[in-house]
Write a structure and sequence with these properties.
heterodimer; A: alpha/beta; Rossmann fold; nine-stranded mixed β-sheet; 20% helix; B: alpha+beta; seven-stranded mixed β-sheet; 23% strand
């Protein structure tokens, strides 16, 4: 198992993610520069949060054209693990590796706060260590995180168990008042039909370090080792 | 030089005095041309030269055992924090641009302060801001608040440095002149920081970052005059920010420093290329030849003086070791940055600016800069006339509250804009990127940001209750420093140094100058007492409308503290039902300049609250001993809204409530809502009460149990005032509902 974190110009959660992933592996976590198309033998590819290319045009719309994304797409097509967090999720949707789109939050404002998540399927690589109905506390920080897709796609996501996380109450209940951005079906994260490409708006890497006094995010990474 | 000679009329139009024009002629030994005059006009503007403030700034304490760079020496202060690391921090204003174009004004304020930090080689890890607006109910204020908050958020969030704290105030005096002060703190290895030096002749001078456009020309001059209805004509002086470029130049700057090829670096803020080239030349006692036509431009028809004065954002000037050009150019290419060598260091001690073959300006570098040839004035001052109204205040004329009236007042107080929750503001800022913010999940009076790789954390706070300073500039400013230090102490950290942002009216107004002079006196006294040297900052005069109204004197204090170890950490939230609540410090019959008196009773003129520097210092000694004591559950400073609001905030943060009893020797209104200083609310485990009281006695700090932590209800003097959630509703909804947001 070798982790790689792609660095786009404007990525700003790359280092946070590298620090957390380093605690899961003896091997150096590779930084994969967006202009390269070599994944350096990494088995697990992460697209970090941030504002790639300033989020100009549309979040993720320019980053998907980076040379490294061809290699990421090939890795995904071969069944390799790919995970996008926040801006990384937006890039995966823009590049077609995940269905749907991330629209402006219904409040039309950037929102940074702790929210609660409950898994939609606990058989997935990043939810294996969780139980159905369980809630974990993880922060969000985005202006464009409202998951949207057409009805058929949504029905497919639900039917195939591709909903990875939903926003919920601290007790794990679903409801509009617990949905911070207006996402369809309270969706906070999804995966592809092959269940090897994951995207989520919340930041598990921001709650996986002792001194931050919230370790709930570790459960997401724990699954990778399980 | 081919250009026409400048005239004294032109000098005055550019904001210079007639005698300053004469001085320029005598420095040059000839009459300046228009380009040269423009250069002097910005470099000798208040904003760049500090000509009306430097005399007093020099009286502030600058020395301390932890100081690695002293005030004025570098772009920002540099403080040794141990473990081979230094913290570089500074606060700066961006008031005038924000008053006209709140979104871009605030955004570029954030950009500018962060460049000051990373131009010294430090990676910013946390930022804060201090904002002041007029009446929250006016459409203008609502537009300004929304624009400023969005500007700070959009820039800071994309740049990727967490906003970990700040303050927001509303007072009518800021209606025309809002204040936007931004602070940033970064970390650099000791010995690896970069100076704004030029090195020996022959070194190449590079510009990198954004291309230069016509935006922001004469921004420094604009910041050096009163705001008026015509200020909207200054709109082209407001720069436009691009946080994406800022992020790229941050990474590129730190990478080129790693190559060892960098001799000196400075960001381009006020007065752009002019300021950076002349300051770096003067600092190293050298000169520079600058080829303006080589500067990457956004449009092709730019004139020499426009290139010199442009304040286009996200640009850096770097002096490279001769022969090492390829190493830095490779990094600029990697980050796809615009760059060019635009000149060379010379031994002429003159800055010479060329357009092609034409020499456009030729000036001794030293004559332009603060500490060199820039003028220095000591203005006269008079005691403000409004002091009479303050002296006339009599507490006896304010009727004390009955318990029933006090309950009604409490609901109003938690919903006052200056006290109510600022969540609507800070939720729009990314406060967690970088994974250093330790206050997200454990709140305290100061923001705590981890210094990764160590057990240490920075404690950061910005404080200034300008109403106090309006009432008494000297004592009020002592309070501003004291409150910052108290916030640091209440978080378990030790106050270490300050940076200041001095926002005042027009210095040529003698009453304003009185406020300024006495505020500096007070700051000096308090900083000496707390051993927190002043590492720098900035002065923003002319926060005054054309109708003559100046803002309250607002010397914002940005304080850095050091938390040696996680185990010393103190937090503000109540932890456990049944814990005793102890008031440290003596309550006074004092409502002076309190939010209750000003906003509920409508008394505009009253004295500064009770404050004594020695009493405060004694309290800090006690707080220092509370840090790390296992039985201490919460510590929270008593400030706006008095004991009641302090208890309410601790309870809310802990999801609990409180039951408190006032002391008979003090009026009920003053006991609950008075803001007399040097007081702190502590909760402790029941078994720790006795030792807390005896420790306080040992330090000579009055301490009394005034109540207990309860389930989520509010009880005062035996009377049930309702559930915490009722109070919370008013507290949390006040800002969004009054802002129509």
């Amino acid at each position: 198992m070798k982790f790689g974190v792609v660095v786009f110009p404007g990525s700003n959660c790359d280092q946070d993610l590298i620090e957390v992933l380093s605690t899961y592996s003896d091997q150096t976590v590779e930084k994969l520069w967006h202009k390269d198309s070599d994944l350096k033998g990494c088995t697990h590819i992460f697209l970090p949060g941030g504002f790639s290319y300033g989020d100009y045009l549309r979040s993720g719309a320019i980053a998907k054209l980076s040379p490294v994304m061809d290699a990421v797409a090939e890795h995904a097509a071969n069944g390799g693990f790919v995970m996008g967090i926040c801006n990384g999720f937006q890039i995966l949707c823009e590049s077609g590796l995940l269905p749907g789109a991330l629209l402006r939050n219904t409040s039309m404002k950037f929102i940074c706060q702790n929210v609660h998540l409950t898994p939609g399927n606990t058989e997935l690589a990043i939810t294996k260590s969780l139980e159905m109905g369980q809630a974990i506390e993880v922060p969000i920080a985005h202006g464009e995180g409202r998951f949207y897709c057409d009805e058929q796609t949504l029905a497919k996501l639900e039917a195939n168990g591709q909903v990875v996380f939903r926003y919920c109450s601290p007790e794990g209940e679903l409801g509009d008042q617990h949905n911070p951005n207006g996402s369809l079906n309270h969706i906070a994260g999804i995966c592809n039909a092959g269940k090897n490409v994951f995207g989520m708006m919340p930041h598990p890497e921001r709650c996986a370090t002792d001194f931050l006094r919230n370790l709930d995010g570790r459960s997401v990474f724990d699954g990778l080792l399980a | 030089m081919q250009q026409e000679l400048a005239t004294v009329d032109q000098a005055q139009q550019l904001g210079l005095l007639a005698e300053e024009f004469d001085q320029i002629c005598s420095i040059l030994g000839r009459t300046p041309n228009f380009t040269e005059l423009s250069i002097y006009s910005v470099m000798w503007s208040e904003h760049c030269s500090y000509k009306n403030s430097i005399t007093w700034l020099k009286t502030l304490p600058k020395e301390g055992s932890r100081m690695l760079a002293m005030a004025g020496e570098e772009n920002a202060g540099l403080v040794d924090i141990g473990d081979g690391l230094a913290c570089c921090f500074k606060i700066e204003s961006h008031n005038h641009p924000s008053a006209i174009e709140p979104y871009q004004g605030a955004a570029t304020g954030v950009g500018g302060i962060n460049r000051d930090i990373f131009s010294m080689g430090a990676r910013p890890i946390a930022q804060l801001n201090s904002l002041r607006f007029g009446n929250i109910d006016t459409a203008r204020t609502q537009w300004l608040v929304k624009g400023v908050v969005k500007g700070i958020g959009d820039y800071g969030n994309a740049f990727g440095i967490p906003t970990v704290g700040g303050e927001v105030y509303f007072d009518d005096c800021y209606e025309q002149n809002i204040l936007v002060n931004a602070m940033s703190a970064g970390i650099v290895e000791v010995g690896k920081s970069i100076s704004a030096a030029a090195g020996p002749a022959g070194n190449p001078v590079y510009i990198f970052g954004s291309a230069t456009g016509k935006d922001g020309i004469h921004g420094a001059a604009f910041a050096s005059k009163d705001m008026s209805e015509d200020s909207i004509n200054d709109l082209p002086s407001v720069q436009v920010g691009d946080p994406f470029w800022e992020k790229l130049i941050l990474e590129a700057s730190l990478e080129i420093i790693e190559t060892g090829a960098v001799v000196g670096m400075q960001d381009m803020g006020a007065a752009g290329i002019t300021c950076s080239t002349s300051e770096m030349s003067a600092k190293s006692d050298v000169g520079m030849d600058i080829w303006l036509d080589k500067v990457p431009m956004r449009q092709s028809d730019m004139k020499g003086w426009e290139l010199l004065l442009s304040e286009s954002q996200e640009r850096m000037l770097v002096i490279v070791q001769k022969g090492e050009e390829a190493a830095v150019e490779r990094i600029f290419e990697k980050w796809d940055l615009t760059y060019a060598q635009i000149g060379v260091v010379t031994d002429t001690k003159r800055v010479r600016y060329y357009m092609g073959e034409d020499l456009e300006a030729d000036i001794p570098a030293e004559s332009l800069v603060l500490g060199g040839g820039a003028p220095v004035y000591k203005r006269s001052w008079t005691e403000p006339a409004y002091f009479e109204k303050i002296k006339a205040f009599q507490l006896e004329n304010v009727a004390d509250l009955t318990l029933e009236q006090a309950q009604e007042a409490a609901r109003k107080i938690v919903a006052l804009p200056n006290i109510a929750s600022k969540r609507w503001v800070y939720n729009q800022y990314d406060s967690m990127v970088g994974t250093v913010n330790e206050t997200t999940n454990l709140p305290s009076d100061a923001a705590i940001a981890k210094v990764k790789g160590t057990h240490k954390s920075l404690a950061l706070t910005v404080d200034c209750n300008s109403r106090y300073i309006y009432a008494d500039p000297d004592k009020g400013t002592q309070i501003a420093v004291a409150e910052a230090a108290r916030n640091i102490r209440c978080s378990g950290a030790v106050p270490t140094a300050i940076s200041n942002c001095l926002n005042f009216g027009n210095p040529y107004n003698e009453e304003v100058y009185y406020q300024f002079k006495h505020a500096i006196d007070g700051m000096g006294k308090a900083c000496r007492k707390f051993d927190t040297p002043v590492t720098g900052g900035n002065v923003s005069f002319y926060n005054q409308s054309s109708n003559g109204q100046a803002v309250y004197p607002t010397p914002t204090i940005a304080m850095l503290g050091l938390l040696e170890h996680e185990s010393k950490r103190l937090s503000l939230n109540f932890k456990q039902e049944g814990d005793p609540i102890v008031l440290l410090g003596k309550p006074e019959n004092d409502l002076g300049s309190s939010q209750y008196l000003a906003k509920i009773c409508g008394v505009e003129y009253s004295p500064c609250p009770f404050f004594d520097l020695d009493t405060e210092y004694t309290l800090h000694g006690l707080l220092g001993e509370l840090a790390g004591r296992e039985s201490i559950q919460s510590v929270h400073d008593i400030s706006e809204g008095g004991v009641f609001v302090a208890a309410f905030e601790s309870a809310l943060a802990g999801g609990l409530g409180f039951d408190i009893c006032s002391q008979q020797e003090v009026r009920l209104d003053a006991w609950l809502y008075g803001e007399s200083q040097s007081r702190v609310l502590v909760s402790c485990k029941p078994e720790g009460l006795e030792s807390l009281l005896s420790l306080a006695a040992k330090h000579g700090v009055p301490a009394l149990q005034i109540g207990t932590v309860t389930g989520p209800r509010v009880t005062v003097n035996g009377s049930d005032w309702g559930s915490m959630s009722d109070f919370e509703l008013g507290y949390s909804q006040a800002l969004p509902s009054r802002l129509n947001a």
